Amino acid sequence: MLSPLAEKLTWLDYTIVGIYLIILLVIGYRASRKKNTDETLFLANKSLDWYSIGFNMWGTNVGPSMLLAFASIGYSTGIVAVNFEWYAFVFLFLLAIVFAPKYIASKVSTMPEFMGKRYGDSTQNILAWYALIKILISWLSLGLFSGGFLVRQILGVPMAPAVIVLVLFAGLFAYMGGLKAIAKVNVFQMILLIGVSTTLTILGLQKVGGISNMYHQVPADFWTLIHPANDTKYPWPAILLGYPVSAIAFFCTDQAMVQSVLGARTLEQGQLGVNFIAWLKILSLPLFILTGVICHILFPNLTNPSMAYMTMVTNLFPAGLNGLVIVVLIAVLVGTIGSSLNSLSTVFTMDVYVKKINPTASNEQIIKVGRLTVLAGCVFAVLMALAIDSIKGLNLFDVFQSVLGFIAPPLSVVFLLTVFWKAMTQKAVNAILSYGSAFSLGVGVLYLWVFTPDKYSFWPHYLLLSFFIFAFLAFAAVIISITDKNPIIYLSEKEESSQEFKPSTRVITLWTALVVVMVSLYLFFS
């Protein structure tokens, strides 16, 4: 059965989609036609400039679920969700100034390899499998399901053919050109996303009579970033303390996010690229969240807030331009799934195949295994997306976002203490990554499925719960390190004294400007 949007499609819409696909394929082909090496496939031959890094990180971050979730939250509660975008600048700064110099100086391809150089093979093995499972579940499966869900919602296409076509198209760039092709494609796609989303917001503003009318037609607390401590959905202590746990794990340690920085032409370009994505995140308010706020004014009686984005698209885009919505959908899917497949391929090939299975592998063998991993990832993602779709009666987006929050504490503890505390030992790292992860996920299972918060009121907000787990694991890591009778501690004098760590004047200037802007925005919306 066709959706209202699908029924409105004209020959012009199909032409727009066709032209977009051709442009996308040409960009991907031009970026991948040079002879591939393992470094080209995984790290773009360390050739990425700041704008490629920023757009690619943003493309990885902006998944299909963001279009649904941000519009839905904007419809229900206003702009409070923008905290999850704007507050991120603190942790992106941490990545640029603290973590990136160490990653690049270590000359690594993956996060497990970085930790392995510090604490040995056992640590690298644990983190490699941890990273693979995380990419497969949280990035590929959930990301593809979100895309398939959105395709079905907007176009009325069944889930199975939708996810198969989407993952094959996204996988094409990871298979043929690796990180370089994905980065080049994402520059084009994110510019397109900005253009289309801006158009939707402008059409909505015109419909409600301008910014002033929009401001006065919704409750006053819709424009407040900081909600009271007794707020049930987004209390300020939960955001202040809990969000950093997930943000550090996501922005500073996640292979899919950090890989663009590892492919930087220079450290300065990497730091500028991270700065650029922080600026781009400011756009989340006008591009994504205001869509929901405007929908609240125009269509106040929606039975399901998650329909806010589709409702706006269906009713505001004129006939002949609905193809742009399909284009944006493909864009965010290719960005997220393509980067995820490339990260999966990199971790498995470099940390499992080369490290354990075939240490003497030739360049051709490494590329072959990397591409086979992409194909296997595509198959797994499709099967998992269909399995998720078969589950009935759950608010899947909320459930899985909560699950991801329980994955973060062990990663945040391990990487933070490794970088900031020289006495961290191998025993503590391995214990937190294994037993600590089991504990964190176990608490998550109890919270989400056994003693659910809707029936048991003793639970704190899940973001605060994530922070408490983080604090407990950090304390445990310190105790284990202090009491370790035979500590294995990493310290590289060369790395610690490297002058490459000092940020350039340009980097300092742009980060200072960003801090001033972000503080001003928080003061304005408080």
UniProtKB/TrEMBL annotation:
<feature type="transmembrane region" description="Helical">
    <location>
        <begin position="428"/>
        <end position="450"/>
    </location>
</feature>
<feature type="transmembrane region" description="Helical">
    <location>
        <begin position="369"/>
        <end position="388"/>
    </location>
</feature>
<feature type="transmembrane region" description="Helical">
    <location>
        <begin position="504"/>
        <end position="525"/>
    </location>
</feature>
<protein>
    <submittedName>
        <fullName>Sodium/solute symporter</fullName>
    </submittedName>
</protein>
<feature type="transmembrane region" description="Helical">
    <location>
        <begin position="274"/>
        <end position="299"/>
    </location>
</feature>
<feature type="transmembrane region" description="Helical">
    <location>
        <begin position="234"/>
        <end position="253"/>
    </location>
</feature>
<feature type="transmembrane region" description="Helical">
    <location>
        <begin position="155"/>
        <end position="175"/>
    </location>
</feature>
<keyword id="KW-1133">Transmembrane helix</keyword>
<keyword id="KW-0472">Membrane</keyword>
<dbReference type="Pfam" id="PF00474">
    <property type="entry name" value="SSF"/>
</dbReference>
<feature type="transmembrane region" description="Helical">
    <location>
        <begin position="319"/>
        <end position="348"/>
    </location>
</feature>
<feature type="transmembrane region" description="Helical">
    <location>
        <begin position="86"/>
        <end position="105"/>
    </location>
</feature>
<comment type="similarity">
    <text>Belongs to the sodium:solute symporter (SSF) (TC 2.A.21) family.</text>
</comment>
<dbReference type="InterPro" id="IPR001734">
    <property type="entry name" value="Na/solute_symporter"/>
</dbReference>
<feature type="transmembrane region" description="Helical">
    <location>
        <begin position="126"/>
        <end position="149"/>
    </location>
</feature>
<feature type="transmembrane region" description="Helical">
    <location>
        <begin position="50"/>
        <end position="74"/>
    </location>
</feature>
<feature type="transmembrane region" description="Helical">
    <location>
        <begin position="462"/>
        <end position="483"/>
    </location>
</feature>
<feature type="transmembrane region" description="Helical">
    <location>
        <begin position="400"/>
        <end position="421"/>
    </location>
</feature>
<dbReference type="InterPro" id="IPR038377">
    <property type="entry name" value="Na/Glc_symporter_sf"/>
</dbReference>
<keyword id="KW-0812">Transmembrane</keyword>
<feature type="transmembrane region" description="Helical">
    <location>
        <begin position="12"/>
        <end position="29"/>
    </location>
</feature>
<feature type="transmembrane region" description="Helical">
    <location>
        <begin position="187"/>
        <end position="205"/>
    </location>
</feature>
